[in-house]
Description:
mainly alpha, 2 domains, 3 helices, globular
Amino acid sequence: MSGNTNWLDAAISKYLSGKLAQFCSELDEGTRQPIGALQTDAALLLSDLCRFLGLDEEQHNHVLGESGVQHVMQVLETHIRSAYRFSTCTADCSVRGARGRSRILVRVGPVNRHFGKPTHP
């Protein structure tokens, strides 16, 4: 039986290695840092990888496990709250006439892009 599936194993391996190389390339472009210089946590990296590979929610949760899913949800919630506070503060400052009111900058990247250090408080 294994002799009959060698071609399938080879095709899957080739497909996955190509997808992982593409993920790595997008990671380099998105963070503007070489992959060896990134500081990230494993749960966030696995979450992004699951999304990149197109896994559905059930598969994603299976890969991360309960504690990994909870961690990712907590980080996303914190980032969303932080981005909201930052945008609200900037908008309030511009309404009151503070310097720089011509631009309201809110940096919110793709939902599942957690690599590198945050660019806002």
